[in-house]
Automatic annotation (TrEMBL):
Its EC number is 3.2.1.21, 3.2.1.45, 3.2.1.46. It catalyses: beta-D-galactosyl-(1<->1)-sphing-4-enine + H2O = sphing-4-enine + D-galactose; beta-D-glucosyl-(1<->1)-sphing-4-enine + H2O = sphing-4-enine + D-glucose; beta-D-galactosyl-(1<->1')-N-octadecanoylsphing-4-enine + H2O = N-octadecanoylsphing-4-enine + D-galactose; beta-D-glucosyl-(1<->1)-N-octadecanoylsphing-4-enine + H2O = N-octadecanoylsphing-4-enine + D-glucose. It comes from Denticeps clupeoides (denticle herring). Residues 1-22 form the signal peptide. It comes from the Eukaryota. Belongs to the glycosyl hydrolase 1 family. Klotho subfamily. This is Cytosolic beta-glucosidase.
Amino acid sequence: MLLRCVTRTCHVLVLVLCLSAAEDFDWTKNNHGSFYYGTFPTGFSWGAGSSAYQTEGAWDQDGKGLSIWDVFSHKKGKVFFNDTGDSSCESYYKVKEDISLIKELKLNHYRFSISWPRIIPTGIKSDHVNEKGIEYYDSLIDSLLENDITPIVTLYHWDLPQLLQDKYGGWQNVSMINYFNEFANLCFERFGNRVKYWITFNNPWAVAVEGYETGEHAPGLKLRGTGAYRAAHHIIKAHAKVWHTYDTHWRSKQNGMVGISLAGDWGEPVDITNQKDIEAAERYVQFYMGWFATPIFHGDYPQVMKEFVGRKSAQQGLGTSRLPTFSSQERSYIKGTCDFLGIGHFTTRYITQKSYPTGRGGAYFTDRDVAELVDPRWPDPGSEWLYAVPWGFRRLLNFVKTQYGNPDIYITENGVSEKMMCTELCDDWRIQYFKEYINEMLKAIKDGVNVKGYTAWSLLDKFEWDEGYSERFGLYYVDFRNHKKPRYPKASVQFYKRIISANGFPSQREVESWKRKATETCSSSNQLLAAEQQRSTAANILRLIHDPLTSHMEMVTEIVVPTVCTLCILLSAVFLMFLLRRRK
Ligand SMILES: *[C@@H]1O[C@H](CO)[C@@H](O)[C@H](O)[C@H]1NC(C)=O
Ligand SMILES: *[C@@H]1O[C@H](CO)[C@@H](O)[C@H](O)[C@H]1NC(C)=O
């Protein structure tokens, strides 16, 4: 008790010291609940995002090849409810409609991804280029530009061509680097006159860990302890190669930028006075974002990763570390291959030190020696893993600033989901999430972090990977049960729109009124959705009533056809016998 009092007093002292040295807004640093009224720098870019497999549908149309997600989602038991992205939001057919939603929001940019197998069906450029696929992205890009919306284009949002998986083992194989580079080069050649922001990979952490270590994502491999490190190694090299391709062959003509989008949850020490917790939290972040960012900005893996994976590998009796190494030539080739850093951020964890024995072999999650905790008071409206902890966002951004030399940052993903059956368009929890997270980003900019743009995740409800359609991240609600896939604005559309038009948060009075107005409009949208759903349920019932008719018709064919045939055979037999008799 006494000790606790002493630490408390110390905290207060530190707080007071900080305050006295601070600028006017610095009080926000030690007061998590505080709200900062102010605006973003002029030219700050506001956007929303999507990805190909999650929204396009048309999975086997117009010459598209299969991706690992097409194949994975068609296997039973891999995705919640055995759902697939076969039709999803049908965005492949709805360019105009989606652009009108983007315009409604007054977005400056729209982030989407190009499906590799849609434009190169086998994944190998020399096999075949699918012009129909190119046409689709041409029309999307052109329509965006006609409406003054900047396209930000991701090259790899998890949909590897299946053939490359079957033939080479996907990202386990070093040959992916060249195939990916050829695909990227084709995109620069065909779209680069109009696209100026390129993201090589979206969240390579998930590709490596969930695709090759836990197997929760396509291709569903469980290569514990080695698969993720190897996949990540090739992805980092592929990223660097594509950056160099752009830098050497396209930059002078096209004047664009090439970056990568990394996922980064923040890790906060459980006890900020405990050195072990502080180090554990640092490890958590280094094994997460640092795994990719440190090679790209400094040329090699984080020291702490090399140490921990190396030591655990030795304890297992392995001759070399399970974490691959870069040659010195590779280190200098990879270092500095980032014109801007994309960050996808959703949540935060408390971290404490926890040692895992190496007896049963190593794995990514035990190599780190950390345990993750959450505060039960943190709001948790949707996805199980997604707790709203706005202050973690500012900490992560400041970490990135100091660790990687204050790079230009685009927030490429930030948002919150709601549970499946929720047809509630009055999403006040999402309004709250955006309001607070965007405010923490504003504070980070005041701290000196170079954030240039923000991408709300996501424009539409969509296929949420292994969670199927059970988690909804959209600003717009999509009625997936209706084959027309109609979109309905949630209240957060109105709220986000106002942040954009004010370029920030002008005053308390105004921001409060936005929230009020946003929730006013959503009840009419709710009624619209409810009416439409009633109508489609009625249509379904009609279909059910029709069903007995069709099954009756099936019965007719099933019984009548064989009966008639048998009769015919019998009759001809009798006729034959009659003929034979007459001959006699
Ligand atoms: C998914 O498919 C598996 C295997 O066929 C089946 O056991 C399971 O019940 C299915 N799940 C749903 C929700 O249909
Ligand atoms: C990579 O692909 C080649 C060609 O199919 C194959 O010979 C090699 O074994 C693969 N390497 C790995 C690590 O899978």
